[in-house]
Amino acid sequence: MHEVPADEAIKRIAEELKKMKNIKYPYPVPIKAGAYAERPPIQDDFWYIRCAAILRKLYLKGPLGTSRLRTMFGGKRRRGHKPPKFRKAGGKFIRTMLQQLEAEGLVKTVKGKGRIVTPKGQSFLDKIASSIKGGK
Description:
Mean pLDDT: 88
Number of strands: 4
Helix content: 40-55%
Number of domains: 1
Order of helices and strands: HHHEEHEEH
CATH superfamily: Winged helix-like DNA-binding domain superfamily/Winged helix DNA-binding domain
Low-confidence stretches: none
Distance between the termini: 14 Å
Largest sheet: 2 strands, antiparallel
Structural class: alpha+beta
Shape: globular
């Protein structure tokens, strides 16, 4: 996963996550991703792309909790004439994604530290990384 381009890896992981039954968008309508966002995400598969990005971050930097992930996925809030300020991403989004990844068996909780990738999740990501590397 370290030697593979992030954008291609996330795209492939998202495609594989779409096939899993426990990972799905839980809301009936599009919702903003955080306080910094002005509009809901445009992509139809936003949920799977963000889940894939979270899974990749956990693999590379693990153990991470919701608060750390909120900071990583945050952005600048535009405030009109005032200068922009950094705002964290929405916590419920990230928490729900982590719970879905946990239900699928790709992630597990470590008490007091956050979540890490399970051996099943590690092999899942390694297979995707090797397929990307082998394809080039």
